[in-house]
Amino acid sequence: MNYTIEKKIPSYFQGNQTISKKDLVDCIRKDFPNLKESSINVYLSKLKKEGVLKNPTRGIYALQGNNEFCPVINSKLKRLFNKIKKDYPFIDFCIWNTIWLNDLMRHQPFKFYTIVELEKDVAQSVFYKLKDKGKQVFLEPDAETFELYIHNSDDVIIIKHLVSEAPIIETKNTIIPSLEKLLVDMIIDTNLYGAQQGELDFIYESAFSKFEINQGKMKRYAQRRNKEKEVEHRINLTLAKN
Question: Could you tell me the strand order of the sheet in which 60-63 lies?
Fold first, then answer.
């Protein structure tokens, strides 16, 4: 019986990326009327543990299969990370490059920036250290600075303040922002993500179709940035299209 249900699970999604728990339970009970709802719940938990199903947010199920977000960390980015980590071993910070977003976009930007997000208390100190080494570095640049200096420059480093409890992850011994964080930030920081503003729909659809996305993580971070409604609206639009 269990194996039979497992084989039927993919058909319940019918091309949809996600399905509500209620709809999934209804589908199972229709095909297996003798099963109690409590037994179905136990079985769904078993399928989650086995990796057949995922539960990206409360009350929503999806099939496993998407990849984890794991961008290329080149040697230049790694060296900068190690330098900051050596000088400030106890701070929270992450590092990334805007070229990572190209895989999610239809039109490819020609300019890329290295972004360092760290605690506000040390941001200015890191800024001056990098500037003393001859780096083109900008601290929390505004729209005018982007227009006059950053857009026309190469090899730029941008320092941003890291929001407390932001979703950051460790990969290849380097701390980077999670994809969930990037998706939320690009709705808010329209200067840094200027090249992405015209493709937000496409970027979200690409991200949700290619990678594992934890919607709960996105919403919690969006709440910390006071943009929960905007992000939830964007997520709902994306899921409706998928």
Answer: 18-20, 60-63, 53-57
Please state the pTM of the whole predicted model.
0.75
Q: 71, 96 in Cβ contact below 8 A?
A: yes
Contact 176, 94 (CB under 8 A): yes
Tens-binned pLDDT, residue by residue, of the chain (242 aa): 555 777 777 788 776 667 888 888 888 888 888 888 888 888 888 888 777 787 766 788 877 666 778 899 999 999 999 999 999 999 999 999 999 999 999 988 888 999 999 999 999 999 999 999 999 999 999 999 999 999 888 899 999 999 999 999 999 899 999 999 999 999 999 999 999 999 999 999 989 888 878 888 999 999 999 999 999 999 988 877 65
**DSSP 3-state assignment of 109?**
coil
Beta strands in 132-233 (DSSP E): 136-139, 156-161, 168-171, 174-177
Alpha-carbon dihedral 90, 92, 97, 102, rounded to 10 degrees? 150
Cα(68)–Cα(170) distance, rounded to whole angstroms?
12
